[in-house]
Amino acid sequence: MGIAAVVWFSLRQADAEPARVQAVTPADGSALATTPDAVTLRLSTSADPVLSHITVRDSTGSTVNDGQVRKTGETGLRQPVRVTLAGDYSVAYHITFTNGQDDSGVLRFSVGTGTAPRDTGEIPDAVADSGGHAHGIDPFGATLLVVDGIVLLVVLALLMRPARRRPAVPSESIDHG
Asked: Can you tell me the distance from the alpha carbon of 90 to that of 61, in angstroms, rounded to the nearest whole number?
């Protein structure tokens, strides 16, 4: 039953439409007259704000994030920012959706320059400045996986062991006399 449920769930995930970022505010390439207080992502489905990263940097590469990523509505994420200077800004995001899928991307916007942002080259990874956040191995989960592996090996060894033949028990002759 368990194997059938896992296979069914896996097939359902494979058939599902990919989760993705549908819109970002401020939009990629936009030239803003006033400073935003946040970068907001509208998503196709719900995301996990703890496992998702949005990093906003100014043209010098300094992070301007002002707090943690938070949910907004059913399918949105909001990264507060503290933008104090006119110039070009880059946004790198890596979103982990609650259905197990993920999406990542980069975009640029400018503030107070009156022109679209310049292409400043490669934008660093969104996870680099995420305050020590990492998708590391959970010790409890890892222990359970090791125990599961050992149990599986023992069961397989028992199943592959040849069956023991039991010695024949001589039948006693019954004297009806």
From this structure: 9
What is the pLDDT at residue 54? 96
pLDDT on residue 106: 93
Q: With contact defined as beta carbons under 8 Å apart, do 109 and 91 qualify?
A: yes
Closest to 90 measured CA to CA, from 114, 57, 112, 66:
57
Q: pTM, whole model, 2 decimals?
A: 0.63
35 and 84 Cβ atoms separated by less than 8 Å = yes
CA geometry: angle 127, 133, 135, nearest 5 deg:
85
Low-confidence stretches of the chain (pLDDT < 70) are 1-16, 120-138, 170-177
Return the closest-CA partner of residue 103 out of 114, 113, 95, 112: 95
The H-or-E segment that residue 157 falls in is helix 139-160
The residue to which tokens 């507060």 are assigned: 80
